[in-house]
Amino acid sequence: MSSPITSGESGNNPPVVISLGKKPSSSGAQPGVADAPKTAFIKTFGCQMNVHDSDRMRRMVRDAGYAEVQSYEEADLVVLNTCYVRENAVDRVKGHLGELNRLKREGRVKKVALTGCIGAASEANELQKTYSIDLILGTHNTYELAKFIGLPGTEETFTPELKGVEGSHSTFVTIMTGCNYQCSYCVVPSVRGRMVCRPLENVVDEVRRLVRSGTRYVTLLGQTVDAWRGADGRRFCDLLERISEEAPRVWFTTSHPSNMEDRTLRLIGERATLVKKLHLPVQSGSDRMLKAMHRGYKADRYQRKIEVFREMVPDGTLSTDLIVGHPGETEEDHEETLKLVEDCAFDSAYVFKYSPRRGTEAAELPETVPEGVAQRRFVEILRTVEKNAFRQNQSKVGGVEEIYIRHAHTGDGRAVGETWSGHAVHVPTTAAAGSYVTAKIESAGPHVLYAGEPSGPPR
Ligand code: SAH
Ligand code: SF4
Fold first, then answer.
1. Residue 245: is it exposed, middle or buried by C-beta count within 10 angstroms (0-12/13-18/19+)?
2. I need a surface site. Which of 132, 141, 311, 392 has the fewest CB within 10 A?
3. Which UniProt keywords are listed (predicted)?
4. Same domain, yes or no, for 66 and 195?
5. Is the CB of 189 under 6 A from ligand 2?
6. Ligand 1: which of 50, 174, 321, 348 to mutate, judged by most atoms within 8 Å of the beta carbon?
7. Taking the model in full, what pTM does it have?
8. In this structure, are residues 7 and 19 in contact, taking their beta carbons and an 8 Å threshold?
9. Per-residue pLDDT tens for 347-399?
């Protein structure tokens, strides 16, 4: 996936609306499951983990004879697969629940399920007092949706297999769940639990199966993928090496700087099948703040990692996450973050204004940063990132790139692709998603490159 500079809504994890399928036909329903056509709409908020969980729920609703539709108005069942990481994510969900209340009163929507990270938090029960919610599921028991929609409820639908979706050109493969860190500001450990790593052979088997079924791009997924550990002392780099032999195009997200090994960076540079982009959240450039956040590294150690990355992967792209306005952040801390952003010359960054989360350590800290100050710092950091990103993107103009088509054109004849170094590119082609074209980069903005007509047919 591309990593645009964003204003702090969804992290390295743009919100994705999953809405496939057509209006139902009675012949589409499975015998015994449905006596009337049924429709479902699964709306996803938040990170790739949620996108992946939604993919699996989508498979369940299909198995139960539902057709997927594009809007709440058309849906009998609405699943809101939610994010809890920042308060504005919760506010957005409340807005959607309000609209669903109205549609339920009018008899247009029949059932509403709330899943994902809000479902795993105690706040879900409070929401249920205000909004009409028929089912609440956390991230650990999403498989129970199966029972709710009339499938034989089996835990295997979801765990421990964590299956990707076959037949898709680009697929996520979860290699670990949960997180063993305790960053001061973060709810992930409390809603996703402690780290559980999937055995290497199990991951390899799934990737083989997916590749056989047509997957051309595998993204290894986890909150801290590079913390993955296997039997016999195997580490993430060993897993990545195996997968880079099995799949034709591979990426991974998200990494934690404390776990990122130099040999992993070298592998990215050496292996032709690995996309040359690294997402390595730094959060702050101030050692004082990094300590308060319990990130477990100092700014100069992070910068040394980046130097290794730039050396081993000279044509690679680098993105990060940054939080502005964590309690106690001074002007000096902010200046240090600005300096780190300049020095690392990120190709893109997700910048977030700190959002206090109930139950986290930072939410109890007294030295809050005023909103106006946080807003100014936020804009200053965004501008600095954009300036560097624009300059770096400009340097790609004139080059010829092999481009993987991520999203086929949607009528305007322009598809969205990705270069091997991880740049997002708009390219005028009708090539299908999952194919490659070769084209010259003609211009560049801060977030995206623009290619000319491809030379030759898609591959
Ligand atoms: N596991 C990933 C991050 C998951 S959350 C990692 O450690 O990198 C995605 C991003 O959301 C984080 O990197 C952080 O920048 C941001 N974030 C998390 N909690 C936040 C909060 N309370 N306020 C603002 N941003 C937050
Ligand atoms: Fe949250 Fe920190 Fe774990 Fe990332 S590493 S999920 S920010 S606790």
1. exposed
2. 311
3. 4Fe-4S, Iron, Iron-sulfur, Metal-binding, S-adenosyl-L-methionine, Transferase
4. no
5. yes
6. 321
7. 0.87
8. no
9. 999 999 999 999 999 999 999 999 999 999 999 999 999 999 999 999 999 99
